[in-house]
């Protein structure tokens, strides 16, 4: 099992609605390829944790890395882990109007066959 954590800065304004649109597309794509983790957006910055098979994590990150919707993509941690730390995909949006973190979407529980 492999984990990669990065931070980045958005290049466009992410309203709550826009974040939700992005987040929901991701959650279904990630489920298909066995990726769990979490994505947080706050004050124009993203932090994302991706977990899964090493090849799946690296292939997905190579796409994310060049996505023009963000820049200054910086990996803060990467390597093997013994088990998933996130058993579902979680998305969190910091709402500056309410000064609260909102968890969005219903958690999708992932079950490894091992
Ligand atoms: C901050 C950020 C995080 C992203 N995270 C994911 C993700 O977890 N899973 C995903 O499939 N796409 C994610 N994307 C979108 C990818 O960059 C890319 O658009 C998507 O994988 C579709 O690629 P494809 O059309 O080549 O399959 C993210 C984009 C941004 C800007």
Which labels suit this protein?
114 residues, alpha+beta, 6-stranded mixed sheet, 2 helices, 41% strand
Question: What's this model, at a glance?
Answer:
This protein has 114 residues and is an alpha+beta fold. It has one domain: Alpha-Beta Plaits (2-Layer Sandwich). Helix content is 25%, strand content 41%.
Tally of helical runs: 2
**Integer-rounded radius of gyration:** 14 Å
> At CATH's second level, what is the architecture?
2-Layer Sandwich
- Report the bound ligands by name, code or SMILES: flavin mononucleotide
Percent of residues in helical segments? 25-40%
Indicate the mean pLDDT.
85
Strand content: 35-45%
Query: Span from first to last CA?
Result: 11 Å
Q: Structural class of the helices, strands and pairings?
A: alpha+beta
Q: Quick one: CATH class?
A: Alpha Beta
Number of domains: 1
> What characterizes the major β-sheet?
6 strands, mixed
* Fold-level CATH name: Alpha-Beta Plaits
SSE pattern, N- to C-terminal: EHEEHEEE
Uncertain stretches of 5 or more adjacent residues: none
Number of strands: 6
Which strands sit side by side, in order, in the main sheet? 4-1-3-2-5-6
What is the approximate shape? Answer: globular
């Amino acid at each position: 099992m492999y984990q990669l954590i990065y931070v980045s800065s958005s290049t466009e304004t992410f309203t709550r609605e826009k974040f939700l649109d992005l987040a929901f597309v991701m959650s279904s794509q990630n489920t298909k390829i066995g990726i769990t983790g979490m994505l947080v957006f706050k004050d124009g910055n993203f932090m994302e944790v991706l977990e899964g098979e090493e090849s799946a994590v690296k292939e997905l990150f190579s796409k994310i890395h060049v996505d023009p919707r963000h820049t200054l993509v910086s990996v803060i941690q990467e390597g093997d882990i013994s088990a998933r730390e996130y058993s579902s995909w979680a998305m969190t949006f910091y709402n500056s109007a309410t000064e609260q973190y909102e968890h969005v979407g219903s958690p999708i529980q992932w079950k490894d066959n091992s």
